[in-house]
Amino acid sequence: MSFVASDSVRHTLRRAAVCAAFALGALAASPAVMPLPPAEAKAKTHVDKQRGFQLRIEEDFTQVPPKLTNDESYLVGEWYQDAAKYDSGYLRPEFKVFWFVEPKDAKPGAESSGGSSIDSADEARKAMMEQFRIKDFDQAVGEFLERNEHLFGKPVPVSDRWKAADRAKTAKGVAVEEFEVNAPSKKKPKDGEPELRGYAYAARLTIDHPKETIRVGFMGTCSVQYAKDFQKQFPAIVRSFEELKTASDVRNEGASADLAEDPAKMREQVKATKLIKGWKAVDTENYLVVHHEDVDPKLAKAVGVHIEALRAQVYEVLFPPDKPITAVSVVRVCKDQEQYFAYGGPGGSAGYWYAPGKELVFYDDNSKDSLSVLYHEAFHQYIYYSVGDFSPHSWFNEGHGDYFAGHQYEGGKFVRKPFQWRLSLAKEWKRNPARPKLKEWLQWSQMQYYGGNKEKVPIGANYALGWSFVYFLRTTKKPEYQGILDRYFKSLKGSVTANRALEEALGEKIDEWKKKYDEWEKKAKDDPENAGPPPERPSTEPAEGTSDLGGADRWLKRAVEEALRGVDLDQLEKDWLASEY
Questions:
Q1: What is the CATH code for 43-243?
Q2: Sheet hosting strand 351-354, strand order edge to edge
Q3: Where are the domains of the chain?
Q4: pLDDT by 10-residue block (mean), the chain, 581 residues
């Protein structure tokens, strides 16, 4: 078991969330797409030497960097159009290339061994991610349209769309299938019909080789009011697709390799395979800072300096690691909000730490707010690598993130100051009768904290209250309150560390069980009547009478109990609500 303080994976950190209402409605039919001439816009050639293909795409499209991990390795090309004239649209113009490889010598079921190989949290996470991973282009298109029904209307099976699709060819004569969703029409919606806001173009082709079949998919999207601008551009990109003569059947080997565990190798791997034109990487002692070349040079320089100082002066002092941290923490700085959203930043947010993706992402917004976002997210990233993969209560997690976001770097030292983003809302909700009692609020789940609570306390209010409570406990002069946060963290950290030690001690037993399970599985296939029951997997719970670790919910509850041991909770709540911040 591991510990993550990144329950804020892709959480809202902005003072105001961005939201928009869209009409729901029926999906327009997919008219045939006729072969079109190349677009008139100036184009640039994109070459993927690793996989062996090239295509031409308009110069005003900006490429999105590849993710560090393999969750979306099927996306081998992604671009967005950030011209100011498209700001008013519901969908910023984007174009994506999908790449699915089918080895011809693959043996069905070869990857499975009866589920006996999943014996760690990391392996379990990988298995879960694989289960939900996009398997083919049709699934990618179908899920996208379903997810955005408010833009494209009632979903139509993708298989039905391909039946009515147009057939064309690339400039090199490769067969292409293509269709449109919500193609521009002079017909006005009938009374009662919704106005559909999204336009999509999809195409696919197949590359056949002796050892593998490659299914290549293309998808372009934009707001329907700009569809006429891209009805020629999107198909022209597909027509320009060309397989390079240097391509071979081994071109996909290593294309989606996991990042190396060795820190030095991992740094070099990111630089060699994840950096595209326009992006730079800067090494510091504990971090790899990846930033776009258009990021303000002062910010780009400050990121590495500040994050190392914050870690040494604040994070490690308040939350000393239980073992040396060897992992490299990756920080990505996008040039602006558009690039941040194109990379995957959630609407309404200014930054996120995504543990499975192994990087912290934020953007340059031409203000000191960028560094506040960095300080907040870097706390989650640090805790993840210092203790492990487990989430404390959100009030502790997000409250500390905002506590650090208020710090100021002055003369080489970090100085604690109130976080201005939260001040007014914290004061308002400390007086609001809808606020739950502290005893209940301290046990709220992430879902409740993020707005899913019967009291209807919104996420922004909980963030403000979390910051206020942590700030109060970190600055109070009353000795009876000064150890609350430390006791909470030590209790939770102790539970996680003890459970990890238990799992490691069971390692040899697990290996022995796996061998027995494999033997049983083989016998069960050959002689099922005499195979008997499968060998019982060793328990990961402590033996009776040793240490009652319990489960994650028990750890969280115990942490609060330990933190408040000997504390008058009613008086604590009164003193907190009466405090200045």
A1: 3.40.1000.10
A2: 279-283, 287-292, 329-334, 359-363, 351-354
A3: 1-22+262-392, 43-243, 484-565
A4: 32 30 24 40 87 94 93 92 78 95 70 42 57 88 94 93 96 97 79 79 95 95 93 96 74 64 94 94 97 96 96 96 89 96 90 93 92 96 85 94 97 96 97 96 96 95 98 98 96 86 72 84 86 80 48 89 97 98 95
